[in-house]
UniProtKB/TrEMBL annotation:
It comes from Motiliproteus coralliicola. The lineage of its organism: Bacteria, Pseudomonadati, Pseudomonadota, Gammaproteobacteria, Oceanospirillales. InterPro entries: Solute-binding_3/MltF_N. Residues 1-37 form the signal peptide. The keyword Signal applies. Belongs to the bacterial solute-binding protein 3 family. The keyword Cytoplasm does not apply. PANTHER family: ARGININE-BINDING EXTRACELLULAR PROTEIN ARTP, MEMBRANE-BOUND LYTIC MUREIN TRANSGLYCOSYLASE F. Keywords: Signal. This is Solute-binding protein family 3/N-terminal domain-containing protein. Residues 44-261 form the Solute-binding protein family 3/N-terminal domain.
Length: 265
């Protein structure tokens, strides 16, 4: 009877990828603290990666390795702190829920002064800023109205990343990633979308997508959001960021991914 039950469970896992993925995620979240408890091992820092990734900031390549500006910066910091990184892919909305629950230790690229829920505020600490990100509007080429400032979009339907923070006066239509938004605007399924400038430029060039890109409507410094349960790491993270900035390492990491990317609209 037990053998039949195990076979039935295996069949369900094969038939429904969502069940399999949820089980694997639960296993990752469970094994993180267990691995950290092993005597003599490095402490584990669980890093949430917004799935399916954000090129050039943080994504998983074809061979399963995590790369990008945030990944490389975190590896330099982790070396200074003597901790091991464990990247866990999650949708933006699930990432926030797992962070609040203490199942994710760190989120990268969080804008300074970002409005957050009370539950998120209570468990969040922030590093000093380590970079700057421009946010832009992408839109269909045939649109004639000015879309360089957000007030022009009041009352209009705008494609946004699910779980992201956007102005309240927009009619948001949520999707899973910036790449999905870029494709929808290119195909005419959405007229307007919001995303990071570097991502928009890369998608338009490498994906050969047809859309216009506005001037940045906001530029903000970005930080690492650290769970309060790992507060002992904050001072060391800030010291490491200071050192890396003085040594020019932060600039080198950014240039590795962005130098040569055309930023002309």
């Amino acid at each position: 009877m037990r053998l039949l039950s195990l076979r039935a469970i295996a069949a369900i896992f094969r038939a429904d990828p969502r069940i399999r993925n949820a089980a694997l995620l639960s296993l990752l979240l469970l094994l993180g603290p267990m691995a950290e408890a092993d005597q003599g091992s490095q402490p584990i820092l669980r890093v949430g990666m917004p799935s399916p990734g954000q090129v050039p900031y943080l994504w998983r390549n074809e061979v399963g390795e995590f790369e990008g500006i945030y990944a490389d910066t975190l590896r330099l910091i982790a070396a200074d702190l003597d901790v091991e990184l464990q990247f866990i892919p999650l949708s933006q909305a699930r990432l926030r829920r797992h962070f609040v629950a203490g199942e994710i230790d760190l989120e990268a690229g969080v804008p300074v002064n970002l409005e957050t829920s009370e539950s998120l505020k209570q468990v969040s600490l922030y590093s000093r800023p380590f970079g700057l990100v421009n946010e832009v509007i992408i839109y269909r080429p045939e649109l004639s109205f000015p879309v360089f400032i957000l007030k022009d979009l009041k009352g209009k339907r705008v494609a946004t990343v699910r779980g992201s923070s956007v102005p309240d006066n927009l009619i948001r239509e949520d999707f899973s990633s910036q790449w999905q938004i870029a494709q929808r605007v290119h195909r005419g399924w959405n007229e307007i979308g919001l995303m990071k400038e570097v991502s928009a430029l890369r998608y338009r060039r490498e994906g050969r997508l047809n859309f216009e890109i506005s001037l940045p409507y906001v530029s903000h410094p970005v930080t690492f959001r650290l769970h309060r349960s790992r507060s002992e790491l904050l001072a060391g993270m800030n010291a490491s960021i200071d050192k890396l900035e003085q040594q020019g390492e932060l600039e080198r990491v950014v240039c590795k991914y962005l130098c040569g990317v055309n930023t002309d609209n």
